[in-house]
Amino acid sequence: MATLSFNSTRIKSPSRQSHKPFSKSHFSTKPNNVPFLFPSKTHPQLHHFKPNSISESSVSVPEEAFDDAEEDDPTSELSYLDSETDPSSVTEWELDFCSRPILDIRGKKIWELVVCDSSLSLQYTKYFPNNVINSVTLKDAMETISEDLGVPLPEKVRFFRSQMQTIITKSCKELGIKPVPSKRCLSLLLWLEERYETIYMRHPGFQKGSKPFLALDNPFPMELPENLFGEKWAFVQLPFSAIREEISSLDERFVFGAGLDLDLLGIEVDDNTLIPGLAVASSRAKPLAAWMNGLEVCSVEADTSRGCLILSVGISTRYVYATYKKTPTTTSEAEAWEAAKKASGGLHFLAIQEDLDSDDCVGFWLLLDLPPPPV
Question: What pTM did the predictor assign?
């Protein structure tokens, strides 16, 4: 088994003896003698995880994402493109096509198409009766969005409901669009939450207590594919200022990964706030990061009941990413890491690095663990 290692001081080429053992951890692969390390030059202060390190008061999420939403007519539809946005720059859409907790005059649930881009520069909604839900209807609607708003059809469309994958995929492929099953539709998810409170609940056909028609999947985690194996891992935490620097340098250094527009998402974080994360070391870090980059990484979860870490990717794929020996110490550490993630508004990160002497990570993903939308 590979040893999970910690060091609360600044890391600069530490010796193996300087690490404080935490537990036995593995990725279902042969052990490696390369101890854990995280970038030291670009991040002057790496804090290995300690409980209660994040103050809830340092993170705030505005209660109202749209100030004038309550003035909207709940029965109206929306077709909007920001006048300052270059239409050709909107190359990716986020899409939901699902029933709503609203009944029409026939007593049947109304369906709705909701489309936006990650910056919400593009916003489109349209209601449909339940007897026209098919790929042709969706294909025609996407063409209408393009024509009405004067934007080209997107290169990619992200969607988060596995039950709608067949319809969405067929519609996209007929239009030459790449369908991307992914829960990284964060602008869309937050917009749906806002619409539930300001639009759907005010609709005359709203059905109070109605459960989501297409609930999100949460399947049992599967065995990790061999190409995603790592060798060492550790719970770590970084000041938010360091995370911003890492995200801003992704393109400059051609590093694999993805960031989040927290300003757009309405999440305010102080630069000194420590954000929890998972760091992974591997002698094959670059190919590992490349494989991870194509998976639409959503979140990392510490499952204390099983003594493992769960990696969620795509829509409903969950992997046992790593395991550890369950002891009171390891369980407490995992619980504290999850509590810190909750205190930071769900923010956490995944970092992949090469080896002991590496000064930079080769993969970095900023993640946001959101609850499922109420619809």
Answer: 0.79
